[in-house]
Amino acid sequence: MKTLVLALFFTLNLFGTTLHLSISSSPSKLNPLISTDSASSQIGEWIFSSLLTYDKNGEIKKELAKSYQFIDDTTVVFNLRDDVTWSDGVEFTAEDVLFTFNLINSPKIFTPYKNQFRYVKSVNVIDKYIVEIKYKEPYFKALETWMMDIVPKHKLENEKEIMTSSFNQKPIGTGKYTIDGFEVSKDIILNANKTYFEKEPNIKKIVYHFMPDPSTEFLMLKSGKLDVGSLSPLQMKRQIDADFQKRFNFFEKISNSYTYLGFNHNNPKFQNSKVREAISLAIDRQEMVDILFFGHGQICNGPFMPGTFAYDENITSPKQDIKKAKQLLKDAGYDEKNPFTFEIVTNSNNQTRVNAIEIMQHQLKKVGVIVKIKTMEWQAFLNTVVMPRKFEAVVLGWSLGLMPDAYSIWHSEGSKKGGFNFVSYKNIRVDELIKKAEKTVDRQKLGVIYKEIYRNIVKDNPYLFLYIPNSITVVDKKIQNVSLSKLGVMHNVIDWIKP
């Protein structure tokens, strides 16, 4: 009987130190240098660390770096922490930083993150815990560049095929949690890193339950099987009851992300600017926001987020103008006898995006445009449609960092294989401005340049910027030390206590 009681105690104690979350799609690769999907980033952020990161207020914070100093405009020296080990016990040193830089620039891998290091002239190991970074010229993101996660030299230096390495499924890092591996469409288990350099997290295990259907996540939240989750505006407005409100704390903020309709500029259909403008004028974005978000979202007016130095408050999205849209289509050679027809593709596990396309389909029908809708499983969508550029139009979203950087998405060089400019947008003036901005350290001058970039992109309609949803997160009231920040609520999970 005593043994049974003890077993029951330890079972309950283990459950109490397990945080239950959900994930809607499986990671592709957990190597942070080559992963490009949100699921991989979501899991990888627990496993890896970088030299620098952001604190809860959005300010630069030291992580693997103990300190840093600018020697001149193009040289920064990082002094690294000497108390960090990889999760397999091997010591972290400056050699890992150099190896990560060399690997990113190696022909062994295809990665859009290579662009982040294009102004780095050299990385030099001065000492076991000292790294000197030299830039080719002054660079506005000299520090933010080193928010890239560092990977272990001792694990990867002898790998011949990094892109297919077993490390991508079973990585080791220096982060808060460790992972033994994952399987596609299965739950993912993370264990607290007992040797994490800040301190061992209070919550010993995180379980991500695989739930491709958002309605399943909602049901799991209502039944008490998830500790943290996201609510859609519809759920927030109409589907929660008093018991749910008593059980959870609610945290709402504007998300650092937007959703867009992206046109493939290599497709002749969208090379005529009149067609892109006509589609833009046919869409009623406010109606879309009202239907989708019930007041918990807003229209997206351009490529950079409100509240940043790059955002131009004088630019707003056009109002719906059916008459002008029809005339533009007619000027482009389309009418009732020869209607403009195109296909929009998106991922099937994001119902909000699917609903957005259905709304646009209805709105565009008013100007004689025929929209076909195709939905696909996320990985198939990413690997066979988006990255190979095999689409006419896509509905996707970008999650943006606190420091805007136009290069990877908007510079024409980003249209190369592995780049994020997969709509193949090209504007010579925008390219020039982006390059000019990269050499501008003065934040006020940088803002002037970025606002011009903003205006040019909006004018060109390479995307139709649709909406910015609010982020609505609920956390079980039993969990202590939870607070909202610019980074959301998960910024201090190592301090959370789950009784």
Overall description:
With 499 residues, the chain is an alpha+beta fold. It folds into 3 domains: 2-27 and 169-253 and 475-495, 3-Layer(aba) Sandwich (D-Maltodextrin-Binding Protein, domain 2), CATH 3.40.190; 38-162, Dipeptide-binding Protein, Domain 1 (Dipeptide-binding Protein, domain 1); 257-470, Dipeptide-binding Protein, Domain 3 (Dipeptide-binding Protein, domain 3), CATH 3.10.105.10. Helices cover 30% and strands 22% of the residues. The chain has helices spanning 2-16, 38-47, 94-104, 153-156, 214-222, 233-239, 242-247, 273-282, 285-293, 322-331, 351-365, 378-386, 407-410, 428-438, 443-460; strands at residues 18-23, 52-54, 60-62, 65-72, 75-80, 120-127, 130-135, 177-179, 188-192, 205-210, 228-230, 248-254, 257-263, 297-299, 341-347, 370-376, 393-399, 463-476. Strands 11, 12, 13, 14, 15, 16, 17 and 18 form an 8-stranded mixed sheet that branches. Strands 1-10-9-8 form a 4-stranded mixed sheet. The longest helix has 18 residues, at 443-460. The protein is globular, with a radius of gyration of 24 Å. It starts with a helix and ends in a 23-residue tail after the last strand. 38% of the residues are buried. Mean pLDDT is 93; it is low at 1-16.
